[in-house]
Amino acid sequence: MTQPAPPLVSLRGISKIFSNGVTALAGFDLDIDAGEFVSLLGPSGCGKSTVLRLIAGLTEPTDGSVTWPGTRDDDHRGEIGFVFQDPTLMPWANVADNVWLPLRLRGVSRRDARDGIAESLALVGLSEFAKAYPRELSGGMRMRVSIARALSLKPRLLLMDEPFAALDEIARFRLNDDLLRLQSELRCTIVFVTHSVYESAYLSSRVAVMSPHPGRIVAEIEGASPGPRTKDFRTGPRYTQLCGRISQVLLAQTAGERP
Questions:
Q1: Could you tell me the residue range of the domain that residue 211 belongs to?
Q2: Other Cβ atoms closer than 10 A to 188
Q3: pLDDT category, 2, cuts 50, 70, 90?
């Protein structure tokens, strides 16, 4: 019998207590398999962003472990791309130079990075804007630059912290579709933080619902298959059922009930 592949990343028994005494996470367990699109959904302050920072190695757990079971390497930061809620672009640098930044920090020259920059911008549909400056772009376009910057590292794992929260619905829908296309093309794994039931239902192969702080996983809901959606998916019964199930679990947490 074929043994199942180990998870890409495994979080076990995680607790996180900040220096001010606030307990952000307690008893947090989550496995993330290669190729998944996992959304973390929960009320404000439940520790969703903290989970991303733990996976990225930007902070350490107070207790518990974050491991990559399929490898013996200890440092996986080079395999991770991170997209924040704010695009955090350098206003004095053009689009190409903003995308170059993570490569530049690794000692890659502008000349050697040229092809990788062009490839990343092509993936997000911004090839014609390489010389534009952030102030000349719409909010959606600035977020595309931020995604291109993360993709320039060719990450195995892409962490995204509410990247579309500030955008209008039309831009958000378009970027949702673009993100699913990118995942299908790049075959990367995505962990996505959102407050939106509808966004999580549309994007995810699995939705992990978190409790109010201290955060832990209270339910894992299977989503749609990975890959682009048909144009009728948002109006179909599968999407409606997913939204209903996720909403039910989330409302139970708001009311202090078990799902």
A1: 9-90+159-254
A2: 20
A3: low
